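User: My instructor asked us to take a sequence, write out its structure as C-alpha cells, and then describe one feature of it. I'm not sure where to start. Here is the sequence I was given:
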Amino acid sequence: MFPILCRALWSRWSPPDKKVFRIPGLSPDMMQLIIEFAYTGLVSVTEDNVQELLLAADQLNVVGVVQTCCDFLGEQLCPENCIGIFQVTDTRSSPELRLEADHFIVAHFEEVVLSEEFPQLSVQQLADILGRDDLNVSEESAAFEAILRWIAHEPDERKADTALLLSKVRLVLTSEDYVRLNARPRLPNGILLAIGGWSGTDPTNSIESYDVSTDLWMQVTDRDVGPRAYHGTAVLNGSIYCVGGFNGVEHFNSVRRFDVSARTWHEGPPMNHRRCYVSVAVLGECIYATGGFNGYSRLSTAERYRPETNQWSLIAPMHERRSHASSTALHNKVYICGGFNGSDFLQTAECYSPETNQWTMIRQMTCRRSGLGIVAYADRVYAVSS
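Assistant: Let's start with the prediction itself. The C-alpha cells for your sequence are:
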C-alpha cells in the first residue's frame, strides 16, 4: 500500500526524484491517518474527521480509506446530514454513496426541507429533485413551500431562479383551497391601511386595506410578521413605518418598514427608547417619535429618524411626559396634543421647531384628551376624541 501511495504522490505533484512534497489542502492529521493505513491497513473514522478524511483519501487515490469513509457515512445518513453527504461525494470516487444520499433526500424530502443544510442545495440540484417522479411528498404543496424556503435564504440572489423552480411544481395536483390561501389580492393605487392593533384579548398582526373606489376591505396580512398594538405609523418615501408598540409581553423600540408595492416587511433601525402609545409624525424627510410608555413610566423624550443615515437620534425632550397623545406636522413644526402623564389626562399642547431644536408650549385645548387623534388641515390643527 505505501509504495502505491508514494507513486500517487510522485506522478501527481513532482518528478520521481523529489523527496519533499507540498500537498495543498491536506492537513498533517489526515496525512498521518493515511500513512498509518498504508502500514497497518486500519484507519480510525469518526464523525469529526470523516468528511476531511474522505476528501484527503480521494485526493491521494487511497481506495481503501475512501470505501471505509463511505461505509461510515452511509450508516449515518439522516435528514440533517444527507445533503452534506450528497455534496461531498459530488465528482468524488464514491458513486454508490452519492446515489444512496440522493435516494434518501427524495424519500425523506419533507424532513430534509426543514434541515439547516437544505438551503445549501444549488438551484440545479433543487430543480432536479423537484422534477423527480419518485419525489416523496404527502401533498404537492410541500414542493411549493420548499421553493419558498430555499429562495427566502438569499432572496436577492435567488429570486431570479423562481421561474425555473416553479416550473417543476405540478400545480394541477395542489388543492383548490391551497391555491386560494396563497392568492394575493392586488392593491389599488389609493388605499387606507389598518395595521395591527388589539383584537379580542390579544394584539394582532392583521393588516387590512380599504379601496375607496369599491368600498371594500381586503386582508393583506403577512403571516411571518408578529403582532403589534399601540404603535405609531407613518408614510415616508412610499413606505409605511410601524414604530414601537406592544405585543402583549414586550414594549418595542423596534421599527418595521412595509414596502407596499412589493408587499414585504423589512426591519428598520431601533429607536433609542422603548415606546408604546407613541405619537408619530412626518416632517420634511424625517419621522418624529415623541413620548410613549416604556413599560415603567411615561416619556418626555423624543427622537427623529433620517432615511439618508438610516438612524434615530434624540432631539430635545418635551416639557410634559406624554403617552396616548397624538402628533402632526404643520408649517415646519411638529405639534403634539393631550395624552396621559401617568396620573392625569392632559389638555396641554406643544410644538417642536427643528431649526432651534426646542419645544414651545402653546395654548391649551379646551378639554383634557387622552387617546385622541390630531390632524393638520388648511393651516389649522384639529383634535378629535371619541
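For the description part of your assignment, you could build on this observation: Residues 191-384 form a domain with the Neuraminidase fold (CATH 2.120.10.80). Try explaining in your own words what that tells you about the chain.
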